[in-house]
Automatic annotation (TrEMBL):
Residues 20-133 form the DNA polymerase III delta N-terminal domain. GO terms for cellular component: DNA polymerase III complex. Keywords: DNA replication, DNA-directed DNA polymerase, Nucleotidyltransferase, Transferase. The gene is holA. Belongs to the DNA polymerase HolA subunit family. Residues 210-308 form the DNA polymerase III delta subunit-like C-terminal domain. Its EC number is 2.7.7.7. It catalyses: DNA(n) + a 2'-deoxyribonucleoside 5'-triphosphate = DNA(n+1) + diphosphate. GO terms for biological process: DNA-templated DNA replication. It comes from the Bacteria. This is DNA polymerase III subunit delta. One of its GO terms (molecular function) is DNA binding.
């Protein structure tokens, strides 16, 4: 079964079996994960998380699904990564689907291309479980999603305000949500937001944005990138949003290196293709090997799972994208 984001939100309470959610919209991913975790807490479902580094990790996942602690009747196993199970893993997946009706295997993956969606792995889950594409391709879909966020903040926007907000953030839903939160805080007595409110609130605070950071690192301008990064940190830009921006650029560059003819299919805007091609000519492919490790360290630091400072690691990631290294990665 295929569901979109809004349909999936309505089914988290009854979710069992195998689910895949895939896409490159961090707001949708986080909201849906939050909804699942809320239901698991309410139903006292035991939760375990696994991060995939190779195909053999799938064996641990299915071993977990076959065992429960003494204090739980149901289990939710949350799997993050972009590694599909091999033939043996696929066999274990089919066995799990056939014999385990009470637990939930929730697989969180980045955006998948058409060939990946036709793989045996996706076809098996789609036929016996649920596949959710975390995407909002059309303006009306993005507005529906953001309208829910606005309702939760107790505000409503004029139609021209919606158009301005979308253009201002170039369809970045997470950044748009942050702006809705900012305008709600700036005008606490105003529940009907017009374009003038957005303009007054956001223009003064948008000297630099995460999009400026993307452009600077792709161009390899380290001094400018560091300046923009410092501004974003000092202005209170969430570290998770900066991480999302950097990880998106790293992922696209690595994918484009492997598939140089598929820029548009990878989701790169037509007017940005030359920027990515220029970055690839400047960067050494060997540098790609350390990128995933740095991103994982940033994520762990943001979540408080390490003693490292997120700002220092983010500076390293910016330097790496510009073709430099501030220190040796661990």
């Amino acid at each position: 079964m295929k569901l979109d984001y809004l349909q999936a939100l309505k089914r988290t309470q009854e979710a069992r079996g195998a689910w895949i959610m895939h896409g490159q919209e961090p707001l949708l991913e986080q909201n849906l994960l939050d909804a699942f975790r809320k239901e698991w807490n309410a139903q006292e479902v035991e939760r375990q998380r696994y991060d995939l580094n190779n195909t053999s990790d799938w064996k641990q996942v299915f071993n977990a699904l076959d065992s429960l602690s003494l204090f739980s009747q149901h289990l939710a196993v949350e799997v993050h990564g972009n590694i599909k199970p091999d033939a043996n893993g696929l066999k274990l997946l089919k066995q799990y689907i056939q014999h385990n009706e009470h637990n939930l295997l929730l697989i969180v993956m980045p955006k998948q291309d058409a060939s990946s969606l036709k793989s045996s792995f996706f076809q098996t889950v789609e036929a016996n479980g649920v596949v959710v594409q975390l995407a909002a391709h059309y303006p009306k879909d993005r507005q529906r999603i953001l309208s829910i966020e606005a309702d939760q903040l107790g505000i409503q926007l004029d139609q021209d305000a919606w158009l301005w907000l979308e253009q201002h953030h170039e369809h970045n839903l997470l950044a748009a949500k942050n702006s809705l939160m900012r305008v709600a805080d700036t005008f606490p007595e105003q529940n009907h937001i017009q374009i003038e409110h957005l303009y007054e609130c956001l223009q003064d605070q948008s000297r630099y944005s995460s999009f400026d950071l993307s452009d600077a690192v792709l161009a390899g301008h380290y001094a400018q990138s560091a300046k923009i990064l410092n501004y974003l940190i000092e202005s209170g830009e969430p570290a998770s949003l900066i991480l999302w921006t950097l990880s998106k650029e790293m992922r696209l560059l690595m994918q484009l290196y492997e598939q140089p003819q598929n820029a548009l299919q990878l989701g790169i805007w037509k007017n940005k293709v030359a920027n990515y091609q220029q970055a690839l000519r400047r960067l050494k492919p060997q540098s790609f090997l350390v990128w995933p490790t740095v991103l994982l360290r940033i994520d762990a630091a943001i979540k408080g799972l390490s003693q490292e400072k997120p700002e220092h690691l983010i500076q390293q990631a910016v330097a790496l994208l510009c073709g430099y290294s501030l220190f040796e990665p661990a």
